[in-house]
Design goal:
Helix content of chain A: 40-55%
CATH class of chain B: Alpha Beta
Oligomer: heterodimer
Radius of gyration of chain A: 16 Å
Shape of chain B: globular
CATH superfamily of chain B: Amidase signature (AS) domain
Largest sheet of chain B: 11 strands, mixed
Strand order of the largest sheet of chain B: 1-3-2-4-6-5-12-13-9-7-8
Order of helices and strands of chain A: HH
Structural class of chain B: alpha/beta
CATH topology of chain B: Amidase signature (AS) enzymes
Largest sheet of chain A: none
């Protein structure tokens, strides 16, 4: 039975022309689950609309 | 008796510039020690013996001619193999990069150390593309812990930890994106400085996560750490993120008293997810400094999560084309994490960068009433090589992803940190001395005070 993220992995793999061999899929899926879980933790945190991102960080 | 290879950088420089030892003798001693011990430690991937001897002879000739040879005269050093070394392909721990053309010019930090009289003796093992906390490398084999060669050095600057912890060289350079200087410092029982983000030039080093990458030195005592750091400071137009601040030398300041400093213990996240040895190490350091106040760092766990997201996505962006063209030449564990990173939606990455701004403001507030925060450098002493899981606060977790659980929330906002080694038995462990932005001098001053009190020290290597 396919895992919930498998369709998403297939779609992004195609969109990015980024190959994901079947043998790698379980590890890619496991890593993506961790990344999305941690990203969700950040996403849940309410921030003011005016918050600027800090991609080039200045201490 | 102290042998040449066990001398500190300051002692070597003094002996060489004072004519009591030649730079060539100091270099030969380091090369001999590397030859004798590195078959076990596996810290070096390249030994640049010819270059080192030529440089040492130049220094000796300059001394004979009465020229000023700099504060690091004749001091052997080595660099993580993501630094460009003229004549070598910059492999960055990978198989793929070995196909690159040899670098034409040294990294800025190598140039600056050599301008101060230091002698490059080689390039050091590291985790592939720096996406690592273990010091293991599938292509080159693991670097080994100098206190127990069956254990990890920590990564990703594993060879740097092993070479300095094993006293092969007194100074090494590494990089720290999420903890890659502080983790090997902790496991290998040495001092490491991760400066403020933007302080030291990253020009001509192979990147990992542009908005989080830092470079910095390792040493076996605080004086050597400050000596190396001071020699590398200064603006550099070749690194877009490098500060335009002028030199702010720390060596003249490290022996100043610490009694006026407000030192606190980082609470919350930093007191969770720890083994007893990490608790003991922080406790010893805090007691010696008279620090009793505990300051909660708000949302540090979320900061770690945001650092994770930014790392995996920026790392994926860097390697996207290599992932398409040469996926089978990566370490499979690195490849699979990077592929997953490429699949994280952009909106979530932007959230992480916005959160970073918010979190930075919280820490800025804390540093209005505190000068230094103390926190564990790692949750435990060095795990066994190949160990996959550990039990952290009653939960079975992957070792590799969680070794940096206490370092990530700090580098996330670029704060300067000195990792200091507490020589516990049977293995050392590090504590982070965290200061406000641009106050490396304060972190080094506290580290020096702890060293003078005998609370922190690099233990002699005894694993080989």
């Amino acid at each position: 039975m396919p895992e919930p993220l498998d369709d998403y992995i297939d779609a992004v793999s195609k969109a990015l022309a980024l190959p994901v061999e079947e043998a790698w899929r379980p590890a890619v899926r496991a890593n993506l689950e961790v990344s999305l879980r941690l990203a969700r933790l950040v996403d849940e945190f309410a921030l003011p609309d005016e918050t600027e991102p800090a991609p080039i960080f200045t201490a | 008796m102290t042998t040449k290879s066990e001398m500190t950088a300051a002692e070597i420089a003094k002996a060489v510039s004072g004519g009591k030892m030649s730079a060539l003798d100091a270099t030969e001693a380091a090369l001999a020690r590397i030859k004798q011990h590195d078959t076990i430690l596996n810290s070096f991937t390249d030994v640049t013996a010819d270059r080192a001897r030529a440089k040492a002879r130049t220094i000796d000739a300059d001394i004979a001619a009465g020229k000023n040879v700099g504060p690091l005269a004749g001091v052997p050093f080595a660099v993580k193999n993501l630094f460009d070394v003229a004549g070598l392909p910059t492999r960055a721990g990978s198989k793929i990069n070995r196909d690159l053309a040899p670098a034409k010019r040294d990294a800025t930090l190598i140039e600056r150390l050599e301008a101060a009289g230091a002698v490059l003796v080689g390039a050091l093992n590291m985790g592939e593309y720096a996406y690592d906390f273990t010091g293991e490398n599938v292509h080159d084999g693991p670097s080994r812990n100098p206190h127990d060669t069956t254990r990890m050095t920590g990564g990703s600057s594993g060879g740097s930890g092993s070479a300095v912890g094993g006293a092969l060289v007194p100074i090494a350079l590494g990089s720290d994106t999420n903890g890659s200087i502080r983790v090997p410092s902790s496991f290998c029982g040495i001092f490491g400085l991760k400066p403020t983000y933007g302080r030291l030039s990253r020009a001509r080093s192979f990147p990992f996560v542009a908005s989080l990458d830092h470079l910095g030195p390792f040493a076996r005592d605080v004086t050597d750490l400050a000596l190396a750091y001071d020699a590398m400071q200064g603006p550099d137009a070749d690194d877009a993120a490098c500060t335009t601040r002028g030199l702010e030398p720390t060596l003249p300041l490290i022996a100043n008293p610490v009694s006026d400093l407000r030192i606190a213990i980082a609470g919350g996240h930093f007191q969770k997810n720890v083994f007893p040895e990490a608790v003991e190490a922080v406790s010893r350091v805090a007691k010696a400094l008279g620090a009793t106040k505990i300051v909660d760092v708000p949302e540090a766990s979320r900061a770690r999560a945001a650092a994770y997201v930014i790392t995996t996505t920026e790392g994926a962006s860097l390697h996207l084309d290599r992932l398409r063209k040469r996926p089978n030449d990566f370490d499979p564990a690195v490849r699979d994490r990077l592929i997953a990173g490429a699949m994280v939606p952009a909106a979530l990455v932007d959230r992480a960068q916005k959160f970073r701004r918010w979190y930075r403001a919280q820490l800025a507030e804390i540093f209005k009433s505190v000068d230094v925060l103390l926190a564990p450098a790692t949750p435990c002493t060095a795990p066994k090589l190949g160990q996959v899981m550990f039990n952290l606060d009653g939960v079975e977790l992957p070792v590799r992803a969680n070794i940096g659980i206490h370092t990530q929330p700090i580098s996330f906002i670029g704060l300067p940190v000195v990792a200091v080694p507490v020589p516990l038995e049977p293995l050392p462990i590090g504590v982070q001395i965290i200061a406000a932005p641009w106050r490396e001098d304060v972190a080094l001053r506290v580290a020096y005070a702890l060293e003078k009190m005998g609370v922190v020290a690099a233990p002699s290597p005894r694993g080989f």
